[in-house]
C-alpha cells in the first residue's frame, strides 16, 4: 500500500489495496491518512452497496437514510447521487455535509459507479488551513461565536417534489427539523486542530448579530474558505472512491457535464456534536 500526498494542505491518493480486503493494520494506516490528509482517494475499486456499507462501518456507525436523496435498491443508507438524460444537476454550492444536524456526519465515503468521460470533478478544501490563514484579529473575533445552520438549500432543487397544491416536499419535511447552532470555530475531536466551521449552503447567520449569509462578513468568510491554496481537485473514474473528514473540510461538485449519465453512491458515518476550542 502506497500513500501519495497531493497538495500542501489536503488530499492523498492511496494505491495498492482493495477496500474489500483491508486487514486491521492496513485500516489503521488508512485511518491515520484520513486524519492527516482530510480526504483520501482510491482508484480501481469494485464495491457493491453492501460492501460499501461494510467498509464504511469501520469508521463508525452509519447515518440513517438521507431525508431527500434516493437510495440504492435494498440499501436505504446508501444515497444515490445521479444525473440522467434530461435530468442535469442543479446549481452547486460549497458545503460541509448535513451541518443542519446537531451532530453532522463524521465522514462520507463516495463511490463512482457511472462516470462521464469528461468533467464532473469534485473539489475539497481544508477548513483547518482556512482558519490558519485568517488574521489573528479575525480569529479572535470569531472565537466563541455561534452560527445558525438550517435545512433550506434543497428547496426548489431536483430533490424537491411539488404537489398539485404547490406544496414543497422539502418545506414540509423541514418543518420537523429545526435550525441548529454550531461554533464558527470548531475543534476537531481527534486531532484537536481548529477549523473555520461555516459553509455557504447551510450557514444562515451569525447568532446575536445582523450578519446573515448575504452580509459582508459571512460572504468574505465563504470566499476565504474556497481559496484555491486550500484545495485539492479530484477527477473521477469508474471505481474511484473518496473518503473525507466532514469535520474539517468543505467540498464542491463541478457540474460541467450537462446531462451525461453520472451515478455515485454515498455513505455517511455518524459524527459528534460540534465543539468550540474550549469544548
Automatic annotation (TrEMBL):
GO CC annotation terms, alphabetical: cytoplasm
InterPro entries: AtsK-like, TauD-like_sf, TauD/TfdA-like
GO biological process, one term: sulfur compound metabolic process
Domain of life (superkingdom): Bacteria
Keyword Oxidoreductase: yes
Residues covered by the TauD/TfdA-like domain: 3-268
Key words, A-Z: Dioxygenase, Iron, Metal-binding, Oxidoreductase
SUPFAM superfamilies named among the record's database cross-references: Clavaminate synthase-like
Name of this chain's protein: Taurine catabolism dioxygenase
Record-stated family: Belongs to the TfdA dioxygenase family.
Gene Ontology molecular function: any one: taurine dioxygenase activity
